[in-house]
Amino acid sequence: MMETGRSETIPGVDSSLRRLPSYLFGRRRIDIDIEEQFSAAWFGLALLLTVAGLLLRIDDLLTIAAALVSIAAFSWLWNRLAFFGLDYRRRFSLRRAFVGETVEIELSVANHKMLPLTWLRVADIFPVDLPLEGATVVKRHDTNLGEMSTFWTLKWRERAQRTFRIQAVQRGYYRFGPARLETGDLFGLFHSVHKLDDEQLFIVYPQVLPLSRFGLPAKEPFGHLYAPRLAFLDPLRIVGVRDYHPEDDFRLLHWKATARRQELQTRVLEPATSHNLLVALNVATLIQHWQGILPEVLEQVISIAASVCYYGLEQRWPTGLIANGALPRSDQPLRLLPGRSPSQITAILEMLAAITPFVTAPIEEMIATETARLPWGSTLVVVSALVSPSLAATLLDLRRVGRRLVLISLDPAPLPPGLHDILVYRLPRVQHETIDLSLAAAGGRELLSPAQRQQQAIKAAGHLLRDGAGPESL
What we know:
Layout: E1 3-4, E2 19-22, E3 26-29, H1 41-56, H2 59-80, E4 86-92, E5 96-98, E6 102-111, E7 117-126, E8 132-133, E9 138-139, E10 146-154, E11 158-167, E12 172-176, E13 179-184, E14 191-196, E15 200-205, E16 233-243, H3 255-261, E17 265-271, E18 277-282, H4 295-314, E19 319-326, E20 333-339, H5 344-354, H6 363-371, E21 379-384, H7 389-400, E22 404-409, E23 423-426, H8 437-441, H9 450-463
Parallel strand pairs: 5-15, 18-19, 18-21, 21-22, 22-23
Antiparallel strand pairs: 1-14, 2-3, 4-6, 6-11, 7-10, 7-13, 8-11, 9-10, 12-15, 13-14, 16-17, 19-20
Helix pairs in contact: 1-2, 4-5, 6-7
Protein backbone atom coordinates (compact mmCIF):
# COMPACT_ATOMS: atom_id res chain seq x y z
CA MET A 1 0.00 0.00 0.00
CA MET A 2 2.94 2.27 0.55
CA GLU A 3 5.79 3.02 -1.71
CA THR A 4 8.76 5.30 -1.54
CA GLY A 5 8.12 8.46 -3.56
CA ARG A 6 10.82 10.30 -5.49
CA SER A 7 10.46 13.71 -7.08
CA GLU A 8 11.52 14.78 -10.54
CA THR A 9 14.85 16.43 -11.40
CA ILE A 10 15.40 19.84 -9.85
CA PRO A 11 16.37 22.32 -12.55
CA GLY A 12 19.33 24.61 -12.11
CA VAL A 13 21.48 22.21 -10.08
CA ASP A 14 24.99 21.64 -11.34
CA SER A 15 25.58 17.99 -12.25
CA SER A 16 29.08 18.17 -10.75
CA LEU A 17 27.51 18.45 -7.30
CA ARG A 18 25.79 15.09 -7.68
CA ARG A 19 28.97 13.03 -7.14
CA LEU A 20 31.43 13.69 -4.33
CA PRO A 21 34.52 11.61 -3.61
CA SER A 22 34.89 9.66 -0.41
CA TYR A 23 38.08 7.97 0.65
CA LEU A 24 36.32 5.38 2.80
CA PHE A 25 33.33 4.39 0.66
CA GLY A 26 34.58 5.05 -2.84
CA ARG A 27 32.49 7.35 -5.05
CA ARG A 28 29.14 7.92 -3.30
CA ARG A 29 26.24 9.32 -5.35
CA ILE A 30 24.40 12.18 -3.65
CA ASP A 31 21.07 12.54 -5.48
CA ILE A 32 19.71 16.02 -4.83
CA ASP A 33 16.55 15.15 -6.79
CA ILE A 34 15.06 12.74 -4.25
CA GLU A 35 12.91 14.02 -1.41
CA GLU A 36 14.23 11.41 1.00
CA GLN A 37 17.39 12.56 2.69
CA PHE A 38 18.17 9.20 4.30
CA SER A 39 20.63 6.79 2.70
CA ALA A 40 22.96 3.97 3.68
CA ALA A 41 25.69 6.56 4.26
CA TRP A 42 24.02 7.35 7.60
CA PHE A 43 24.87 3.91 8.92
CA GLY A 44 28.37 4.12 7.51
CA LEU A 45 28.91 7.48 9.20
CA ALA A 46 27.48 6.19 12.50
CA LEU A 47 29.75 3.14 12.33
CA LEU A 48 32.75 5.32 11.54
CA LEU A 49 32.00 7.64 14.48
CA THR A 50 31.48 4.69 16.81
CA VAL A 51 34.82 3.08 15.86
CA ALA A 52 36.60 6.42 16.13
CA GLY A 53 35.01 7.16 19.49
CA LEU A 54 36.02 3.78 20.89
CA LEU A 55 39.58 3.95 19.59
CA LEU A 56 40.16 7.57 20.54
CA ARG A 57 38.05 7.37 23.72
CA ILE A 58 35.99 10.40 22.71
CA ASP A 59 32.48 10.24 24.19
CA ASP A 60 31.15 13.02 21.99
CA LEU A 61 31.69 10.91 18.88
CA LEU A 62 29.73 8.06 20.45
CA THR A 63 26.94 10.48 21.35
CA ILE A 64 26.76 11.77 17.79
CA ALA A 65 26.67 8.22 16.41
CA ALA A 66 23.88 7.27 18.81
CA ALA A 67 21.97 10.40 17.85
CA LEU A 68 22.25 9.58 14.14
CA VAL A 69 20.94 6.06 14.67
CA SER A 70 18.15 7.26 16.97
CA ILE A 71 16.99 9.98 14.56
CA ALA A 72 17.04 7.55 11.64
CA ALA A 73 15.07 4.91 13.56
CA PHE A 74 12.58 7.45 14.91
CA SER A 75 12.05 9.00 11.46
CA TRP A 76 11.63 5.59 9.84
CA LEU A 77 8.99 4.56 12.38
CA TRP A 78 7.20 7.92 12.02
CA ASN A 79 7.09 7.49 8.26
CA ARG A 80 5.79 3.93 8.53
CA LEU A 81 2.93 4.99 10.79
CA ALA A 82 2.05 8.16 8.87
CA PHE A 83 -0.86 6.68 6.87
CA PHE A 84 -2.35 4.63 9.70
CA GLY A 85 -5.59 6.19 10.94
CA LEU A 86 -5.56 8.74 8.12
CA ASP A 87 -8.88 9.40 6.37
CA TYR A 88 -9.40 11.56 3.28
CA ARG A 89 -12.91 12.17 1.93
CA ARG A 90 -14.83 14.23 -0.60
CA ARG A 91 -18.40 15.23 0.10
CA PHE A 92 -20.74 16.82 -2.43
CA SER A 93 -23.73 18.89 -1.43
CA LEU A 94 -25.40 17.44 -4.56
CA ARG A 95 -24.21 14.50 -6.61
CA ARG A 96 -26.48 15.55 -9.50
CA ALA A 97 -27.03 19.09 -10.69
CA PHE A 98 -28.46 20.98 -13.64
CA VAL A 99 -26.54 23.31 -15.93
CA GLY A 100 -26.18 26.69 -14.26
CA GLU A 101 -26.23 25.45 -10.66
CA THR A 102 -23.47 25.71 -8.07
CA VAL A 103 -22.46 22.72 -5.95
CA GLU A 104 -20.26 22.70 -2.87
CA ILE A 105 -17.57 20.07 -2.42
CA GLU A 106 -15.96 19.54 0.97
CA LEU A 107 -12.53 17.99 1.31
CA SER A 108 -11.81 16.61 4.77
CA VAL A 109 -8.75 14.96 6.29
CA ALA A 110 -8.90 13.22 9.67
CA ASN A 111 -5.94 11.96 11.67
CA HIS A 112 -7.27 9.34 14.11
CA LYS A 113 -3.96 8.40 15.76
CA MET A 114 -1.86 10.03 18.47
CA LEU A 115 1.00 10.72 16.06
CA PRO A 116 0.72 14.13 14.34
CA LEU A 117 1.34 14.78 10.68
CA THR A 118 3.83 17.56 10.11
CA TRP A 119 2.85 17.80 6.46
CA LEU A 120 0.47 16.13 4.03
CA ARG A 121 0.14 16.89 0.34
CA VAL A 122 -2.99 15.66 -1.47
CA ALA A 123 -3.09 15.69 -5.28
CA ASP A 124 -6.68 14.90 -6.28
CA ILE A 125 -8.01 14.41 -9.81
CA PHE A 126 -10.61 17.07 -10.67
CA PRO A 127 -12.32 17.71 -14.05
CA VAL A 128 -10.88 20.64 -15.93
CA ASP A 129 -14.22 21.53 -17.59
CA LEU A 130 -15.91 22.57 -14.34
CA PRO A 131 -14.66 25.86 -12.84
CA LEU A 132 -13.63 25.54 -9.20
CA GLU A 133 -13.90 28.51 -6.84
CA GLY A 134 -11.24 28.79 -4.17
CA ALA A 135 -8.58 26.62 -5.82
CA THR A 136 -6.82 26.02 -9.12
CA VAL A 137 -7.11 22.89 -11.21
CA VAL A 138 -3.93 22.28 -13.23
CA LYS A 139 -4.02 20.07 -16.29
CA ARG A 140 -1.36 17.37 -16.31
CA HIS A 141 0.33 16.94 -19.66
CA ASP A 142 1.04 13.24 -19.15
CA THR A 143 -2.57 12.21 -18.53
CA ASN A 144 -4.59 15.25 -19.75
CA LEU A 145 -6.45 15.12 -16.43
CA GLY A 146 -6.95 17.99 -14.04
CA GLU A 147 -5.21 17.91 -10.66
CA MET A 148 -6.00 19.98 -7.60
CA SER A 149 -3.34 20.03 -4.86
CA THR A 150 -3.90 20.86 -1.21
CA PHE A 151 -1.42 21.01 1.69
CA TRP A 152 -2.40 20.03 5.24
CA THR A 153 -0.83 19.96 8.72
CA LEU A 154 -2.65 17.89 11.34
CA LYS A 155 -2.17 17.42 15.04
CA TRP A 156 -2.94 14.16 16.78
CA ARG A 157 -6.64 13.23 16.53
CA GLU A 158 -7.41 16.33 14.53
CA ARG A 159 -9.89 16.76 11.70
CA ALA A 160 -9.73 19.54 9.10
CA GLN A 161 -11.97 20.39 6.18
CA ARG A 162 -12.05 22.88 3.34
CA THR A 163 -15.04 23.80 1.17
CA PHE A 164 -14.93 24.71 -2.51
CA ARG A 165 -17.65 25.58 -5.01
CA ILE A 166 -18.12 23.95 -8.39
CA GLN A 167 -19.87 25.74 -11.24
CA ALA A 168 -21.92 23.29 -13.32
CA VAL A 169 -21.48 25.09 -16.62
CA GLN A 170 -21.44 22.07 -18.92
CA ARG A 171 -23.58 18.94 -19.19
CA GLY A 172 -21.82 15.64 -18.71
CA TYR A 173 -20.43 12.91 -16.47
CA TYR A 174 -17.44 13.95 -14.37
CA ARG A 175 -15.15 11.75 -12.29
CA PHE A 176 -13.32 12.92 -9.18
CA GLY A 177 -10.35 10.89 -8.04
CA PRO A 178 -8.24 8.94 -7.50
CA ALA A 179 -6.20 10.92 -4.98
CA ARG A 180 -2.47 10.75 -4.33
CA LEU A 181 -1.35 11.35 -0.73
CA GLU A 182 2.24 12.23 0.17
CA THR A 183 3.70 12.65 3.62
CA GLY A 184 6.88 12.07 5.60
CA ASP A 185 8.53 12.29 8.98
CA LEU A 186 9.37 15.32 11.07
CA PHE A 187 12.99 15.59 9.90
CA GLY A 188 12.27 15.03 6.21
CA LEU A 189 14.42 11.90 6.03
CA PHE A 190 11.70 9.64 4.62
CA HIS A 191 8.90 10.22 2.14
CA SER A 192 5.92 7.97 1.40
CA VAL A 193 3.15 7.99 -1.19
CA HIS A 194 -0.25 6.35 -0.96
CA LYS A 195 -2.89 6.23 -3.70
CA LEU A 196 -6.61 6.19 -2.89
CA ASP A 197 -8.46 4.45 -5.70
CA ASP A 198 -11.90 5.73 -4.71
CA GLU A 199 -13.57 7.60 -7.57
CA GLN A 200 -16.77 9.59 -7.31
CA LEU A 201 -19.15 10.44 -10.11
CA PHE A 202 -20.71 13.87 -10.50
CA ILE A 203 -23.51 14.26 -13.07
CA VAL A 204 -24.61 17.53 -14.66
CA TYR A 205 -28.06 17.21 -16.20
CA PRO A 206 -29.16 19.23 -19.24
CA GLN A 207 -31.54 22.14 -18.83
CA VAL A 208 -35.17 21.17 -18.16
CA LEU A 209 -37.60 23.99 -18.95
CA PRO A 210 -41.34 24.46 -19.36
CA LEU A 211 -42.32 23.79 -22.96
CA SER A 212 -43.77 27.28 -23.19
CA ARG A 213 -40.22 28.65 -22.93
CA PHE A 214 -39.50 27.02 -26.28
CA GLY A 215 -42.59 28.51 -27.90
CA LEU A 216 -44.81 25.42 -27.59
CA PRO A 217 -48.41 25.80 -26.36
CA ALA A 218 -48.78 25.42 -22.63
CA LYS A 219 -51.96 23.35 -23.11
CA GLU A 220 -51.93 20.26 -25.31
CA PRO A 221 -48.56 20.98 -26.96
CA PHE A 222 -48.78 17.69 -28.88
CA GLY A 223 -52.34 18.12 -30.08
CA HIS A 224 -55.51 16.26 -29.13
CA LEU A 225 -54.33 12.97 -27.66
CA TYR A 226 -57.63 11.10 -27.46
CA ALA A 227 -57.82 8.07 -29.69
CA PRO A 228 -59.73 8.84 -32.93
CA ARG A 229 -61.42 5.47 -32.87
CA LEU A 230 -62.88 3.19 -30.20
CA ALA A 231 -60.13 1.71 -28.10
CA PHE A 232 -60.15 -2.00 -27.30
CA LEU A 233 -60.13 -3.09 -23.68
CA ASP A 234 -57.17 -5.10 -22.56
CA PRO A 235 -58.24 -7.92 -20.16
CA LEU A 236 -54.74 -7.97 -18.66
CA ARG A 237 -54.89 -4.30 -17.59
CA ILE A 238 -57.20 -4.21 -14.56
CA VAL A 239 -57.36 -0.76 -12.98
CA GLY A 240 -60.18 -1.40 -10.45
CA VAL A 241 -63.68 -2.68 -9.79
CA ARG A 242 -67.13 -1.08 -9.71
CA ASP A 243 -70.78 -2.03 -9.36
CA TYR A 244 -72.16 -4.23 -12.09
CA HIS A 245 -74.40 -2.60 -14.74
CA PRO A 246 -76.84 -4.55 -16.92
CA GLU A 247 -74.95 -3.59 -20.07
CA ASP A 248 -71.62 -4.90 -18.75
CA ASP A 249 -70.08 -8.07 -20.08
CA PHE A 250 -70.87 -10.97 -17.74
CA ARG A 251 -67.37 -12.33 -18.30
CA LEU A 252 -65.89 -9.33 -16.52
CA LEU A 253 -67.49 -10.12 -13.16
CA HIS A 254 -65.09 -10.00 -10.23
CA TRP A 255 -66.26 -12.92 -8.07
CA LYS A 256 -63.99 -12.26 -5.07
CA ALA A 257 -65.11 -8.63 -4.82
CA THR A 258 -68.73 -9.78 -5.28
CA ALA A 259 -68.39 -12.19 -2.36
CA ARG A 260 -66.92 -9.50 -0.11
CA ARG A 261 -69.53 -6.83 -0.87
CA GLN A 262 -72.49 -9.20 -1.45
CA GLU A 263 -73.20 -7.26 -4.67
CA LEU A 264 -72.19 -7.94 -8.23
CA GLN A 265 -68.87 -6.27 -9.02
CA THR A 266 -67.23 -5.97 -12.44
CA ARG A 267 -63.65 -5.34 -13.46
CA VAL A 268 -62.60 -1.97 -14.89
CA LEU A 269 -60.12 -2.45 -17.72
CA GLU A 270 -57.65 -0.01 -19.22
CA PRO A 271 -57.95 0.67 -22.97
CA ALA A 272 -55.38 -1.06 -25.14
CA THR A 273 -54.74 2.28 -26.85
CA SER A 274 -52.56 4.22 -24.38
CA HIS A 275 -50.99 7.64 -24.55
CA ASN A 276 -47.42 6.47 -24.72
CA LEU A 277 -44.86 9.13 -25.56
CA LEU A 278 -41.62 8.33 -27.36
CA VAL A 279 -39.03 11.07 -27.89
CA ALA A 280 -36.61 10.58 -30.79
CA LEU A 281 -33.50 12.74 -30.50
CA ASN A 282 -31.26 13.42 -33.48
CA VAL A 283 -27.79 14.48 -32.30
CA ALA A 284 -26.60 15.41 -35.80
CA THR A 285 -26.23 19.18 -36.16
CA LEU A 286 -24.70 19.24 -39.64
CA ILE A 287 -25.72 17.38 -42.79
CA GLN A 288 -22.36 15.65 -43.09
CA HIS A 289 -21.26 14.19 -39.77
CA TRP A 290 -17.58 14.48 -40.60
CA GLN A 291 -17.92 18.28 -40.90
CA GLY A 292 -18.12 18.65 -37.14
CA ILE A 293 -20.75 19.68 -34.61
CA LEU A 294 -22.48 22.83 -33.44
CA PRO A 295 -22.11 22.48 -29.64
CA GLU A 296 -24.71 25.09 -28.66
CA VAL A 297 -27.28 23.64 -31.06
CA LEU A 298 -26.58 20.16 -29.71
CA GLU A 299 -27.14 21.34 -26.14
CA GLN A 300 -30.36 23.02 -27.26
CA VAL A 301 -31.87 19.88 -28.82
CA ILE A 302 -30.81 17.83 -25.78
CA SER A 303 -32.50 20.37 -23.50
CA ILE A 304 -35.67 20.23 -25.59
CA ALA A 305 -35.71 16.42 -25.50
CA ALA A 306 -35.24 16.44 -21.71
CA SER A 307 -38.04 18.99 -21.28
CA VAL A 308 -40.44 16.99 -23.47
CA CYS A 309 -39.71 13.81 -21.49
CA TYR A 310 -40.25 15.62 -18.22
CA TYR A 311 -43.56 17.03 -19.47
CA GLY A 312 -44.75 13.56 -20.51
CA LEU A 313 -43.91 12.01 -17.16
CA GLU A 314 -45.49 14.97 -15.40
CA GLN A 315 -48.71 14.10 -17.27
CA ARG A 316 -48.28 10.48 -16.07
CA TRP A 317 -47.77 9.17 -19.60
CA PRO A 318 -45.43 6.24 -20.20
CA THR A 319 -42.45 8.06 -21.72
CA GLY A 320 -39.39 6.68 -23.48
CA LEU A 321 -36.36 7.95 -25.36
CA ILE A 322 -34.36 6.90 -28.40
CA ALA A 323 -31.32 8.75 -29.71
CA ASN A 324 -28.75 8.11 -32.41
CA GLY A 325 -25.96 9.27 -30.12
CA ALA A 326 -23.96 6.96 -27.87
CA LEU A 327 -22.66 6.80 -24.35
CA PRO A 328 -18.94 7.32 -23.73
CA ARG A 329 -16.84 4.28 -24.74
CA SER A 330 -19.80 2.82 -26.62
CA ASP A 331 -20.94 2.68 -30.23
CA GLN A 332 -24.56 1.67 -29.65
CA PRO A 333 -27.53 4.06 -29.97
CA LEU A 334 -29.63 4.85 -26.92
CA ARG A 335 -32.96 3.12 -26.34
CA LEU A 336 -35.20 3.41 -23.29
CA LEU A 337 -38.65 1.84 -23.44
CA PRO A 338 -41.65 3.97 -22.40
CA GLY A 339 -42.42 3.79 -18.71
CA ARG A 340 -43.75 6.00 -15.95
CA SER A 341 -41.99 4.67 -12.88
CA PRO A 342 -40.47 7.22 -10.47
CA SER A 343 -37.00 6.30 -11.71
CA GLN A 344 -37.83 6.90 -15.38
CA ILE A 345 -37.00 10.61 -15.38
CA THR A 346 -33.69 9.92 -13.63
CA ALA A 347 -32.74 7.31 -16.23
CA ILE A 348 -33.65 9.67 -19.07
CA LEU A 349 -31.71 12.62 -17.64
CA GLU A 350 -28.65 10.48 -16.97
CA MET A 351 -28.69 9.19 -20.54
CA LEU A 352 -28.96 12.72 -21.89
CA ALA A 353 -26.21 13.92 -19.54
CA ALA A 354 -23.76 11.35 -20.91
CA ILE A 355 -24.77 11.31 -24.58
CA THR A 356 -22.01 12.07 -27.08
CA PRO A 357 -22.42 13.93 -30.40
CA PHE A 358 -21.12 11.11 -32.58
CA VAL A 359 -23.90 9.71 -34.76
CA THR A 360 -24.25 5.94 -34.58
CA ALA A 361 -27.13 5.51 -37.06
CA PRO A 362 -29.50 7.68 -39.14
CA ILE A 363 -32.37 8.82 -36.98
CA GLU A 364 -34.95 7.85 -39.62
CA GLU A 365 -33.83 4.22 -39.43
CA MET A 366 -34.22 4.18 -35.66
CA ILE A 367 -37.65 5.80 -35.90
CA ALA A 368 -38.88 3.24 -38.46
CA THR A 369 -37.65 0.37 -36.27
CA GLU A 370 -38.90 1.61 -32.91
CA THR A 371 -42.36 2.79 -33.99
CA ALA A 372 -43.19 -0.74 -35.13
CA ARG A 373 -42.89 -1.81 -31.47
CA LEU A 374 -45.02 1.01 -30.03
CA PRO A 375 -48.64 0.42 -29.00
CA TRP A 376 -51.24 1.90 -31.28
CA GLY A 377 -52.11 5.48 -30.41
CA SER A 378 -48.65 6.37 -29.07
CA THR A 379 -47.19 9.79 -29.83
CA LEU A 380 -43.78 10.12 -31.42
CA VAL A 381 -41.99 13.43 -30.83
CA VAL A 382 -38.96 13.94 -33.08
CA VAL A 383 -36.43 16.55 -31.93
CA SER A 384 -33.88 17.37 -34.59
CA ALA A 385 -31.64 20.25 -35.62
CA LEU A 386 -31.92 19.08 -39.24
CA VAL A 387 -34.81 17.80 -41.33
CA SER A 388 -33.36 15.82 -44.21
CA PRO A 389 -35.47 14.52 -47.11
CA SER A 390 -35.08 10.96 -45.85
CA LEU A 391 -36.32 11.95 -42.38
CA ALA A 392 -39.29 13.78 -43.92
CA ALA A 393 -40.12 10.76 -46.09
CA THR A 394 -40.06 8.45 -43.05
CA LEU A 395 -42.36 10.75 -41.09
CA LEU A 396 -44.79 10.95 -44.01
CA ASP A 397 -44.89 7.16 -44.31
CA LEU A 398 -45.67 6.83 -40.61
CA ARG A 399 -48.37 9.47 -40.88
CA ARG A 400 -50.05 7.63 -43.74
CA VAL A 401 -50.41 4.50 -41.65
CA GLY A 402 -52.03 6.48 -38.85
CA ARG A 403 -49.16 7.20 -36.46
CA ARG A 404 -49.42 10.33 -34.32
CA LEU A 405 -46.31 12.48 -34.95
CA VAL A 406 -44.87 15.76 -33.70
CA LEU A 407 -41.74 17.33 -35.18
CA ILE A 408 -39.68 19.91 -33.29
CA SER A 409 -37.20 21.32 -35.77
CA LEU A 410 -34.30 23.75 -35.39
CA ASP A 411 -33.52 23.67 -39.09
CA PRO A 412 -33.42 27.24 -40.49
CA ALA A 413 -33.85 25.93 -44.06
CA PRO A 414 -37.34 25.50 -45.55
CA LEU A 415 -38.95 22.22 -44.63
CA PRO A 416 -39.40 19.54 -47.30
CA PRO A 417 -42.87 19.61 -48.89
CA GLY A 418 -45.63 17.36 -47.66
CA LEU A 419 -45.22 17.89 -43.92
CA HIS A 420 -48.40 19.95 -43.58
CA ASP A 421 -50.27 16.92 -42.16
CA ILE A 422 -47.79 16.69 -39.28
CA LEU A 423 -47.70 18.97 -36.26
CA VAL A 424 -44.43 20.86 -36.73
CA TYR A 425 -42.78 23.38 -34.39
CA ARG A 426 -39.92 25.40 -35.83
CA LEU A 427 -37.70 26.92 -33.15
CA PRO A 428 -34.83 29.41 -33.59
CA ARG A 429 -31.29 28.25 -33.00
CA VAL A 430 -28.89 29.69 -30.49
CA GLN A 431 -25.67 31.27 -31.71
CA HIS A 432 -23.15 28.61 -32.52
CA GLU A 433 -19.58 27.94 -33.45
CA THR A 434 -18.41 24.86 -35.30
CA ILE A 435 -16.00 22.44 -33.64
CA ASP A 436 -14.22 20.07 -36.00
CA LEU A 437 -14.75 16.48 -34.82
CA SER A 438 -11.55 15.30 -36.46
CA LEU A 439 -9.56 17.81 -34.41
CA ALA A 440 -11.52 17.02 -31.27
CA ALA A 441 -10.76 13.33 -31.67
CA ALA A 442 -7.05 14.16 -31.90
CA GLY A 443 -7.11 16.50 -28.91
CA GLY A 444 -8.78 19.41 -30.66
CA ARG A 445 -10.45 20.48 -27.42
CA GLU A 446 -7.28 22.46 -26.84
CA LEU A 447 -8.38 24.87 -29.56
CA LEU A 448 -10.48 26.54 -26.87
CA SER A 449 -9.21 27.36 -23.43
CA PRO A 450 -11.26 26.31 -20.38
CA ALA A 451 -12.29 29.92 -19.84
CA GLN A 452 -13.53 30.19 -23.42
CA ARG A 453 -15.46 26.94 -23.14
CA GLN A 454 -16.96 28.19 -19.90
CA GLN A 455 -18.09 31.43 -21.53
CA GLN A 456 -19.64 29.50 -24.41
CA ALA A 457 -21.50 27.19 -22.06
CA ILE A 458 -22.75 30.08 -19.96
CA LYS A 459 -23.89 31.89 -23.11
CA ALA A 460 -25.79 28.82 -24.25
CA ALA A 461 -27.26 28.26 -20.80
CA GLY A 462 -28.27 31.90 -20.52
CA HIS A 463 -30.49 31.47 -23.56
CA LEU A 464 -32.34 28.65 -21.80
CA LEU A 465 -32.21 29.62 -18.13
CA ARG A 466 -35.33 28.77 -16.23
CA ASP A 467 -37.45 31.20 -14.20
CA GLY A 468 -37.89 30.65 -10.49
CA ALA A 469 -38.31 27.10 -9.25
CA GLY A 470 -37.35 24.63 -11.91
CA PRO A 471 -36.59 20.95 -12.03
CA GLU A 472 -35.36 20.82 -8.44
CA SER A 473 -38.74 19.24 -7.71
CA LEU A 474 -37.56 16.15 -9.56
